[in-house]
């Protein structure tokens, strides 16, 4: 049966859901002027480690004796030549977890930086609240309506914009991309589109049958946007320079981010997430639960870095996690909810080969609440450095309202 307008309105529950999944900005922007920036457009890739990653295992403070005193079973051994289970020396005081070995060459090349004792000044140990604060960019304030990445996009309004300026590989748009600026959430490039409910050809059949008056140019522009995305040709994509992405959802997300960047569809901000960091029990050392998550994270980032090759000159990849873990191991061989953690920033514009931040120390009197790594770098100062010096944001006060002057001092990890 031909799909008439009446049938469409009665039987298109899935079609309307599918159409709603295409934000209104696609219908406005798909047929607009050419995308600005081209291959020189700066790109930020944000990776959220949901669950509160143990920053002292990611970037091991082997030079602080308090680390070993508090973690007799789960501390990573200090760097030792020929010992693959020991930390990988970074600067004589800090070392990478051995499961992050694939990141070591990027650090040595000066394109990877770590920031330690970083996080939110809010003291909550609630995953939900801490993630909300980090994604909104307003610690302690639950009423913020939009996310900091969305405000960054608003601050950087472009005259000729892409409908795929901001893409999250997630089942729904993350908190940090909610707001007035356009953003898209998808789980797969191949599956992204507009579908009808039970009718061959779906929504597009309306236009094939001459029914384009139903939604007018809006529908045609939507399809034009979808076709723009399909230029990535996901079925035939082959990573370059020997890049091997880890299997699983996280690896697939990173591979597809590379596809979008190489397809020059105007991507500026990409978001992906990886869970499993809430290591209350059986955390492990060089092997085990945490090592498995770190290996997937590190191997995925390294694959993306290698796959993009020369394009990394305009790309910054940044990790984040809602808070860290307790210094002391618990009775289950794990760690509990803590305060400060560590994060990575890498890419061509990054002044890497360095661990940034002021180390607060792990002596009893130096701990936060007598149990946690103390905070010395507000996460907003790192995010703000990337926003201003990489993406050219003019006003950090609008992106991070309420940021104190001292906490907003930039660590200088992005080159001019």
Protein model, in words:
- The chain is α/β, with parallel strands linked by helices and 416 residues long.
- It has 2 domains: 1-31 and 192-231, no CATH class; 41-189 and 239-399, 3-Layer(aba) Sandwich (Alkaline Phosphatase, subunit A).
- The chain has helices at 5-11, 13-20, 24-29, 55-58, 65-70, 104-108, 127-136, 148-155, 204-208, 217-230, 249-263, 289-308, 379-389, 396-399; strands spanning 43-49, 59-60, 88-89, 95-96, 112-119, 166-169, 184-186, 269-274, 315-320, 341-347, 354-356, 377-378.
- Strands 1, 5, 6, 7, 8, 9, 10, 11 and 12 form a 9-stranded mixed sheet that branches. Strands 2-4-3 form a 3-stranded antiparallel sheet.
- How many beta-strand runs? 12
Mean pLDDT: 84
In angstroms, what is the radius of gyration?
A: 23 Å
Please identify, by name, the CATH architecture of the largest domain.
3-Layer(aba) Sandwich
Q: Structurally, how many domains make up the residues?
A: 2
Shape descriptor:
globular
Secondary structural class: alpha/beta
Indicate the topology.
Blueprint: H1 5-11, H2 13-20, H3 24-29, E1 43-49, H4 55-58, E2 59-60, H5 65-70, E3 88-89, E4 95-96, H6 104-108, E5 112-119, H7 127-136, H8 148-155, E6 166-169, E7 184-186, H9 204-208, H10 217-230, H11 249-263, E8 269-274, H12 289-308, E9 315-320, E10 341-347, E11 354-356, E12 377-378, H13 379-389, H14 396-399
Parallel strand pairs: 1-8, 1-9, 5-11, 5-12, 6-7, 6-8
Antiparallel strand pairs: 2-4, 3-4, 5-10, 9-10
